[in-house]
C-alpha cells in the first residue's frame, strides 16, 4: 500500500495541472460570455476608464515593490481600481503560444489571486495598450497543482505573447529578458514612446532568490503569425504526461485487483 501511495503522489502534479487548466478555461469561458453580452458602448466606457487609470499612474508617486513581497500584498488598491475592467471574474487573458500558456488575468497580486492565475500589479498600467504604458503581470513559477509560469524561462527574444482585453487582441514581441534581485524595481519605468508589458516570476525555480523578467513591446497583431507558432516541446511533454497518467491508472487498477483477489482467496481458505 505504501508503494501505491507513492505512485499517487507521483501522479498528483499531472492530475492537478489538468484540473487547474480546466478551471482556467472555465474562468476564461465565463469571462468571454460576459464580454459577449456587453454592448460596444459599454466596452468603450471600460476602455476609457482604463485609459484614465493609466494616466493617473504617471501622475501619482506610487513606490514600485517586488510583487511577491509582503509589501506588495499589503498595498491597498483603491475601489476605483477594481471597478475598472471588472468583467466577470477576470479582467482579460494572457496567451503565450510558444510555451502553451493561456491564463486569466486578475486584479492585484494577493496570494488568493496568484494561486488561481496571473495577477496585475495595481501600481502599473492596466494592460489595454497605448503609448506611455507599461503593464506588469506576475505569476508563480509553478504550484504543485498548476504550472502557471513554470516554463517562462523557455521564452526567447522575438517570441510573441498576447493580451486579450475587451474586444482586442494585443500582440507583444519579447525584446528583453533579465534576472534581477527582488529589490531591483526600476525595470517598470514608463516611456512615453513605448507600449510595454512585462511578465514576472520567481527565479530559480523552487529557490526564488531572484526575479525573472520577460518584457514585450507592442507590435501589430497578425493572426497568421500567431497560428504558425509551435509550442516548445508541447507534443512530447503532453504525450509523456498522458502516457504516464494512463500507465499509472492501469498499474494501480491492476494492484487493486490483485489485492482484492488475495483478500478473497484468504477468506475462502479460512472458511474451508
Describe the structure.
It is a single chain. The protein is globular and about 85 Å long. 41% of the residues lie in helices and 22% in strands. It has helices at 2-37, 40-59, 70-74, 79-82, 111-114, 223-227, 234-271; strands at residues 92-96, 101-107, 118-120, 133-138, 160-165, 168-180, 195-203, 210-219. The protein has 272 residues and is an alpha+beta fold.
Short structural description:
This protein has 272 residues and is of the alpha+beta class. It is 41% helix and 22% strand. It has a single domain (2-232), classed as Sortase, Chain: A.
How helical, in percent, are the residues?
40-55%
Largest sheet, in brief, is: 8 strands, mixed, barrel
Number of domains: 1
* Rg for CA atoms: 23 Å
Element layout with pairings:
Elements: H1 2-37, H2 40-59, H3 70-74, H4 79-82, E1 92-96, E2 101-107, H5 111-114, E3 118-120, E4 133-138, E5 160-165, E6 168-180, E7 195-203, E8 210-219, H6 223-227, H7 234-271
Parallel strand pairs: 2-3, 4-7
Antiparallel strand pairs: 1-2, 1-5, 3-4, 5-6, 6-8, 7-8
Helix pairs in contact: 1-7
Question: Which key terms come to mind for this protein?
Answer:
22% strand; 7 helices; 272 residues; single chain; Sortase, Chain: A; disordered N terminus; alpha+beta; eight-stranded mixed β-barrel; 41% helix
